[in-house]
Design brief:
The protein is α/β, with parallel strands linked by helices and about 160 residues long. The chain contains 4 helices and 7 strands; from the N terminus they run βββαβααβαββ. The chain is about 25% helix and about 20% strand.
């Protein structure tokens, strides 16, 4: 297959130990330049399956340091907890975990597959990608969904309780 130039990459700012930075690479068709950390976590934990523009996402993870850093810094879990989460979902038939691939395979798949995203060490990123920022943000009250309301909190106007 042929590579497409300019796939997107998501820099997981603050990730990494001993100078290693973890990034998330994505196909060039990705329309966003940054994503909130919570959305990235939801994409990799199977809670969301598409980008804000509706593009279906196929997550990939390069095992090793990238997985460890990503699990700890973005998901707030150990890599073992992430594996256990996916084992439960797979057993129940509720999802398929992100595929574990080599750095070279991650670069190749992302470059040729719309909607593909991958967590990878920055030093392993190929030439066909760009950096996209992951940021932290608090969800304000108007952004909360029905399932996000705290117990006892009033429902937003126009939403049945």
């Amino acid at each position: 297959m042929q590579f497409r130039k300019g796939a997107a990459v998501l820099l997981l700012t603050g990730c990494g130990s001993a100078g290693a930075e973890t990034v998330m690479i994505a196909h060039q068709g990705m329309l966003v330049d940054s994503l909130p950390r919570a959305r990235v976590a939801h994409l990799f934990m199977g809670r969301e399956t598409a980008l804000p523009d509706g593009t279906p996402v196929t997550p990939l993870i390069v095992a090793g340091t990238a997985l460890e850093n990503f699990a700890q810094d973005v998901l707030g879990k150990s890599s073992d907890e992430v594996r256990q989460h996916w084992a439960r979902l797979t057993f129940k038939g509720l999802g398929v975990p992100p595929r574990m691939v080599s750095a070279a395979e991650a670069n190749a798949r992302v470059a040729r597959t719309p909607g593909a995203i991958a967590v990878i060490d920055r030093r392993d990123v190929g030439p066909h990608v760009k950096i996209i920022r992951v940021y932290s943000r608090k969800v304000s009250a108007p952004d909360r969904g029905i399932g996000d309301r705290r117990r006892g909190a009033a429902a937003p106007s126009g939403v049945a309780g």
